[in-house]
Amino acid sequence: MTKQYTPFPKDFLWGGATAANQIEGGFGEGNKGLNIADVLPGGTERLSVLSEPGFDFEIDREKYTYPNHDAIDFYHRYKEDIALFAEMGFKVFRLSIAWTRIFPNGDEEEPNEEGLAFYDRVFDELHKHNIEPVVTISHYEMPLNLVKNYGGWRSRDVVTFFERYVNAIFERYKDKVKYWMTFNEINSGLMMPIMGLGFSIQNEEDKYTPTFQAFHHQFVASSLAVKACHEIIPDAQIGCMIIYAPVYPYDSNPENVLHALKEEQLFNYFCADVQVRGEYPAFINRYFKENNIELDIKDGDLALIKEHTVDYIGFSYYMSRTERKEKTNEEKAEGNIMSGVKNPYLKASEWGWEIDPTGLQVALNQLYDRYRLPLFVVENGLGAKDNVDVDGPIQDDYRINYLREHIEAMGEAIKDGVDLMGYTAWGCIDLVSASTGQMSKRYGFIYVDKQDDGSGSFERSRKKSFYWYQDVIATNGANIFDE
């Protein structure tokens, strides 16, 4: 028998990824407090509504629906879902802890036992099936009390509250979780501060200093988390997590090349440089000077950031981005909170996100060349509408084709010499879309009978991609390279 070829190492971490606010439901159960996601209405305008000046962060059921309140009811169905993940062969499962299940208001002195016990049960169930949890500590789920009464991450007080939170979960789960990440897509705060930083830029407010002051507080908090993790769980690994989208110049015009470089530095590298290299990069210091940004940096902050850097880099990859310095009337390309000019060489998804598997190989090479740390693709997937076939599983060949091309790109990057530790496909089970609040924008290998209007049985069923991904894991990717 001919041995199958695969570039993936034998200990490669195959799995899937989710976030608590998009799958759990269990709204108000277990003494959970309100977070930002709880006031997110359903529908494609949800993020613009949340960012409107004067938005009061209140739930208005007469005006809006709130799909995150039920999500897909993982809170009650986690055993069924984890069994399905195990059937696919998952080595790891990326999930987040809802901060408000542990500290309902964010500023309590003591954690909530009911919330701690819930994740005990989830982690125990994962280990029962030999699946390692990969836990995001903060994934767009900031306690609403910290947003409304402290101003989000603009407040230095939130650093203290976050440190209390991470110490509580590290102590509780030190024997159950070996892979951690601090802030989900931390650089998203540049585009959408309300989700990651806990505030909106108001019309009369300077848009620069509050954002970068909030980032500084997150960098301090991240370093404190790394320090605590290494002390409390010495055999654990803790990483950062960014959105990564290679920025292509529209053409070979040097002005466009330089513009693309500056866009890439600010969005792709600023937050990673601080968390990985442990210092503010030179390009951001020039940016601060040119935009009159002065940060309140306390004594010891920079030494803390320098000493406690991350062990690996987790990142989401959905698309590349094409930029031109002088915008004309080209059709815009939108996707994952960012936009650029349309790339004539790429097709796009139903939601306008350009599809560029080669860009993932580019991203992996760029990140590894810059940082020389292990990389972890913790989000990648295709949001698409699925048609239910009563005669068999959903035939989602479009999803299979998308994932196959991106996994192949990862294999090519490994052959380039990139140290890639794992891959968790985003939305491995259908969930509430963060950007649109829709269930109809589906990513999963597992279909969940929940519709945009709130109807549905919550029943789970396997799609064609379920069996395909099962084979990917079983062969460690060899089925892709032997096709």
UniProtKB/TrEMBL annotation:
Classification via SUPFAM superfamilies: (Trans)glycosidases
Gene Ontology biological-process entries: carbohydrate catabolic process
Transmembrane segments: none
InterPro entries per the UniProt record, alphabetical: GH, GH_1_N_CS, Glyco_hydro_1, Glyco_hydro_1_AS
List of catalytic residues: E379 (nucleophile)
Keywords from the named record: Glycosidase, Hydrolase
PROSITE patterns: GLYCOSYL_HYDROL_F1_1, GLYCOSYL_HYDROL_F1_2
GO cellular component, one term: cytosol
A GO term for molecular function: beta-glucosidase activity
Pfam families in the record: Glyco_hydro_1
Tree of life domain: Bacteria
Family: Belongs to the glycosyl hydrolase 1 family.
Protein name: Glycoside hydrolase family protein
Species the sequence originates in: Gracilibacillus halophilus YIM-C55.5
